[in-house]
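Suppose a colleague, Dr. K., hands you the sequence of a protein chain of 229 amino acids and asks what its three-dimensional shape might be. Before reaching for any lab equipment, you can write down a predicted structure in token form. Begin with the sequence itself:
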Amino acid sequence: MSAVPRTARGTRTRAKLLQAAETVFASVGYHEASIVKITEEAGVGLGTFYLYFEGKQTIFDEVVEDLNRRVRHAMTDAARSAGNRLAAERAGFRAFFKFTAEHPALYRIIRQAEFVSPGALRLHYTRIVNGYIEGLKAAQLSGEVREMDPTVAAWALMGIGELIGMRWVLWDEEGAEPAQGPRPDVPEEVFEEMMQFIERALAPTPGGTANPAPGPASGTNQTQEGTAP
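The predicted structure, expressed as tokens, is then:
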């Protein structure tokens, strides 16, 4: 359990600790991370840490929750103005890849959570999928996508984004090893191939495309991009 700051200064300090923890967990991993390293990264005293967090596990779980909130916000904000479900898919995936390119810690920390905090890992994916399911249900009712099990479809679509991002955002092009710092975005030709696959999978008629979203695949260069908060 963590404490809620009572002042603006406390809110800023707590945010600095979360950002520092994100950096440390992403760079050295949970087991090599320490509260001392986190406070040094944040530029605050060791005692200050315990004003806001009980320990390393607590702040790790909060980092996972914070990353989850930010990536969901980026995707939702980008897709909000889309004219149909396929356009929303395109905008949401662009926002997801943009966020992960700018915050590769998302991948590194979520993968640590599989062993460090399985509950936080499950909550991370469940929160994303639950919103996805509701969006697909609504699109089915309006005839924008074909009839399907929205739960299975949501997990499948999230898996596509997860692995495409891992391959073309997180890994080095040649060595296929995790790299540090901001990463390049998914190449446009990879993004378009992925979207054609998704559009065909969701289209109301087998093998067809319903109201394809604007973009190179449909003859224009207009895309909807999201920006991480």
